[in-house]
Specification:
The chain is mainly α. Helix content is 40%, strand content 9%. The protein has a domain at 1-77 and 301-322. Strand 1 and strand 2 form a beta hairpin. Helix 2 packs antiparallel against helix 4 (64-71), helix 2 runs parallel beside helix 11 and helix 5 packs across helix 6.
């Protein structure tokens, strides 16, 4: 992830907190901030390539503030989860004989659910024999080692990292300004080749990056008591594995009863209880997260729009390898 893409990702996270805000206390202030963050996101998007102007969804963003001002919060807007379910629904509809479409849709979705449980090595229950069981490993291997069956179900192992692959190095160049000298700690390994990398992926959702633009917090281990009526909000704080030097270890926890899929083979082992970061893109208690984060975001100026459009047009006409 280069610097431009990182800024675009941060802008998208900040914009999402305004788009999916369910309670608006000051409509005028909210609309001003929403328009500002929409402009920031679109400017950064066009700066990468102006080809994005062909996507109608980005054009709709410019009309979103007026719609919210007239109709209220946009909490019922469709998300990717609806699109994913829509794909399943369309597939089920194609294989219906149209005589009893409701029954056909229910049966096909039921078959999808059963197939998912079988292939994920889920804990199953036979209601006739009253015996709980797992499927034979050969059933899982039929999917695991057969590429044709995987592709027929829309699965591509090349694009998916298995849990055992973490932590992995993200293949992105290390910028010259980020290069650092080898720490003295590694001098005790003279026979090893020490190399600095740009980013590490600790899990499917964890990325070590110094440019996350999230407020860092430190646990002082002090205990204070407050009445329930005085609690304003609960904040989403995540452990800062980058500062703590956490690593992935084999998961030795016993499987919980009623868990559908098999437990993850690896888990994160936190090495301290001190370093944390505030999730500035949390969709829960949004105003309180913004107040504590205190992130200053400057609006987009006219000259920035002009520069972004020129850069985007150049990238569209003469695309680079990135």
């Amino acid at each position: 992830m280069d610097e431009k893409l990182c800024k675009l990702w941060i802008a998208l996270g900040q914009l999402s907190t305004y788009v999916f805000q369910t309670q608006i206390n000051n409509m005028a202030q909210y609309l001003n901030e929403l328009r500002k963050h929409i402009d920031i996101f679109l400017c950064l998007l066009v700066d990468r390539t102006s080809q994005w102007v062909n996507k109608p969804k980005f054009h709709i963003l410019k009309h979103l503030p007026d719609c919210i001002e007239s109709l209220g919060c946009a909490s019922l807007f469709a998300t990717e989860q609806f699109e994913s379910f829509n794909s399943v629904l369309q597939t089920a509809s194609v294989h219906s004989n149209r005589l009893r479409p409701g029954r056909d849709l229910a049966l096909i979705c039921l078959n999808y659910q059963a197939l998912r449980l079988v292939l994920s090595n889920a804990w199953l229950y036979n209601h006739k024999t009253n015996i709980a069981f797992y499927c034979s490993p050969e059933v899982n291997n039929l999917f695991r080692y057969n590429v044709l069956i995987q592709k027929s179900m829309g699965y591509n192992h090349v694009l998916v990292n298995t849990p055992s692959a973490f932590p992995t190095v993200i293949q992105c160049p290390l910028l010259p300004k980020d290069e650092q000298e080898i720490p003295a700690y590694f001098q005790q390994y003279p026979d090893s080749v020490i190399t600095q990398v740009s980013q590490l992926r600790l899990s499917e959702k964890d990325v070590v990056s110094p440019t996350a633009n999230m407020r860092e917090l430190r646990n002082t281990h002090e205990h204070r008591y407050a009445a329930v009526k005085d609690i304003k909000a609960c904040l989403n704080v995540q452990h800062n594995c980058s500062s703590g030097g956490c690593s992935m270890v084999p998961n030795t926890s016993p499987q919980r009863a009623g868990l559908e899929a098999a437990p993850a083979s690896n888990c994160v082992k936190h090495l301290d209880d001190t370093h944390f970061i505030l999730n500035s893109s949390s969709l829960h208690s949004i105003d309180s997260h913004r107040q504590l984060a205190s992130l200053t975001v400057a609006p987009i100026e006219a000259w920035q729009w002009n520069q972004a459009i020129r850069n985007g047009l150049d990238e569209w006409i003469n695309p680079s390898d990135s």
